Amino acid sequence: MLLPTLLAQTLPSLTLASEIPPLTPRQRGLVCRSDTFSDLLPPTATIESIVPILNPNTTHAFESPLQNPAYPLPAPNLPPLCALTLNVTTSPSSFFRFGLFLPTTWNTRFLAVGNGGFAGGINWGDMAAGARYGFAVMSTDTGHNSTSGDLDWALGSPEKQRDFGWRAMDGAVKLAKELIFAYYSDPPRRSYYSGCSTGGRQGLKAVQVDEKAFDGLLVGAPAWWSTNLATWTTKVFTYNAPGGEGYLDSRAMGVLGREVVRQCDGVDGVADGIVSAGERCVFDFERVVCKGEEEGECLTTKQVETAKKVYGDYVVDGEFMFPGLSLGSEGLWSVLLGGTAPDPRGQEYVKMFVLGDAGWDWRTWNDSIATMAAEMDPGELTADRFDVAGYRERGGKILMYHGDADGMIPVKSSDYYYNQTAASMGGVEALQSWFRYFRVPGMGHCAGTRVNAPWYFAGGNQDGSLGAAAHSMAGLRDAQHDALLALVEWVEKGVPVESIIATTWNTPSSPASGVLRQRPLCPWPKTQVLTEGRDEKDPKGWTCV
Ligand SMILES: *[C@@H]1O[C@H](CO)[C@@H](O)[C@H](O)[C@H]1NC(C)=O
Ligand SMILES: *[C@@H]1O[C@H](CO)[C@@H](O)[C@H](O)[C@H]1NC(C)=O
Ligand SMILES: *[C@@H]1O[C@H](CO)[C@@H](O)[C@H](O)[C@H]1NC(C)=O
Ligand SMILES: *[C@@H]1O[C@H](CO)[C@@H](O)[C@H](O)[C@H]1NC(C)=O
Ligand SMILES: *[C@@H]1O[C@H](CO)[C@@H](O)[C@H](O)[C@H]1NC(C)=O
C-alpha cells in the first residue's frame, strides 16, 4: 500500500476522490483530498477548492482559484503543502471564505494572518510567509470581496459588517483547527496570530471574543478603536481641506518635517535623522513661522494652526475621542491630508456603516457623527475589551508594535490601548509578564521608512513589502530579529521578549542592497539608548533602558 504522503502526491486534484474508498481516520495523515475533511464539516461549510502543491520551485506560485482584488499577487516560493479554500455561511445574507495552507513538513503550530483596511480577500501572500516557517496557516476574506478602500459591500448589510468585525475570524479559526486535526491526526500544539493595522485589530478582537483562540498574538499598528479611528480620519482631513487658508501642501509638510528633525532628532542623544522620542521633544512652533518673507523654509501662522490640530487630540464636548499624529510622522501626512477628499476608510465608513447613506457629503461633517459612531459601533469592529484576564491566565502572550512615524494610525492610539489595558489589568509592570509593547522609531504604517530607520522584524505584512525577497531573510530568521519567532519562544519556553533587533537596508525595502542599520526595539516604557562611544549602526551598541 502507498504511504499516505505518497498517495497525496499522486492525486492531482479532488476529481479522483470518488474512485477511492473512504479512508479510516488512521489512514488520513497528509492526504490532500476533500474526503479527508468533508465528514467533519458543519452543514454551513463547503470546500471550494483543494489543491496539492507538490513540486514547488522558487518561482512556483499558488494562484487563487477566484480573482482576489484585495490580494491580487500569487503566493511565491511555497514549501510542499495542501491548499484549501472553504466557504462558510453565517446568515441568510452572509458568508465568509478562508484559505488554509497545510505544509507537508509541519512545525506543529497554527498561525492565522490578518487583513488590511477594509480589504475583503484571502491574504495568500502573508499565508505564504507563514507556510515558509512550517506553520499551518489561515487567512479569511472577512466575509466580503473588495479592496481596502471599497466599502460598498457594507451598505445596509449588518450581517456582513459583523463578519468583518469578528465573526469570520472567529469561525475560521475554530474550523481551521479542526481541519488541521483531520489532516495531521494531531491538533496544533500552539496557535498564533500575526497581523497589522486592521490585522492588528483582528488579533486583539479574536481573543476578546474567545480567549482560547490563540496562545500568542503579534499585533501591529492595530486599528482597534475602529469607530473613532474612522471618524477621526474624516475629521483630520477637514482641518486641511484644499482651499483653506492654512492649507498644508506637500512642500509645507516637508518644511515642517525637516524642522521637527532639527528640533527633536537629538533628544535621544543620537543625531541620526530618526525622531525616536517625539513625546519628549518640546517642539517650538515659533521657530518655523515665517518672519516677513513668505517663501522658503517656513510656514504661515495659519499653517501652524492646521499642524497643531493634526498633532492634537480630537475632543468632542470634553470627551477624548482620538489622539493626533506624532512628531516625526510628517513624511506620511500626505496619505490622510494630501487628497481632495477624506481617505475612503474614513468617509466611506461614515456613509456605509454609520449613516447608511451612500450620498452623504463629507463637507457636511459634524462632530455628532463621531459620537454616534462610537455609540453604535456597527458590526462590532472596535476591540476595546481591555481586560482579557482569561487569556492571560491561559498563558496567552501579546507582542504589540507600532511605527512612531505612522501617518495613518497615530502611534498614540496604541499607547492609549496599552495604557487602558494597564489601567484595567494591574498596571504597566504587571503587563510585562504577558503583554509587551514595542514602539518602532522612524517606521511608517506597518512597514517601511522614510528616514532609513530599522523597521524589518518579520511583522505582519512586512515580508510582503519586500516582495518575493522574503526568501532572502535567512540570517534574520531567529528570535533576536524575528518578532514572530520571539513570540513563539516567549509562549513555549517562557523567554520574555527583552528586545527585537530591527533591520533596514541601504535601499529600505531591498535586502539585496545590503544592511544599513540594525537596532534593538524595546518594550515600552523602556527606550533604546546608545552606549557612549559606540557605533549607532551596530545593534550591540544599544541597550533598552
Ligand atoms: C517553476 O514553477 C513555475 C510555475 O509553475 C514554472 O513555470 C517553472 O517552469 C518551474 N521551474 C522549474 C525549474 O521547474
Ligand atoms: C471578487 O470580485 C471580482 C471582481 O471584482 C471577481 O472577479 C471575483 O471572482 C470575486 N471573487 C470572489 C471570491 O467572489
Ligand atoms: C459561498 O456560499 C454561499 C452560500 O451557499 C454562496 O451564495 C456563495 O456564492 C459562495 N461563494 C463563493 C465565492 O463561491
Ligand atoms: C450631523 O450630520 C448628520 C448626518 O448628516 C445629521 O443627521 C445630523 O442632524 C447632524 N447633526 C448636527 C447637530 O448638525
Ligand atoms: C500613556 O501613559 C503614559 C505614562 O503613564 C503617559 O505618559 C502617556 O501620555 C499615555 N499616553 C496615552 C496616549 O494615553
Automatic annotation (TrEMBL):
The superkingdom listed in its UniProt entry is: Eukaryota
Q: What is its EC number?
A: 3.1.1.-
* Entry-linked Pfam families: Tannase (PF07519)
Record's signal peptide: 1-17
| Gene Ontology MF term list | feruloyl esterase activity; metal ion binding
Membrane-spanning segments: none
Q: Which InterPro entries match?
A: AB_hydrolase_fold, Tannase/feruloyl_esterase
Annotated coiled-coil positions are none
Question: What's in the keyword line of the UniProt record?
Answer: Calcium, Disulfide bond, Hydrolase, Metal-binding, Serine esterase, Signal
Keyword Metal-binding listed:
yes
Task: State whether keyword Signal applies.
Answer: yes
Could you say which protein family the record assigns here? Belongs to the tannase family.
Name this protein carries in UniProt: Carboxylic ester hydrolase
Biological source species? Podospora aff. communis PSN243
Source organism phylogeny: Eukaryota, Fungi, Dikarya, Ascomycota, Pezizomycotina
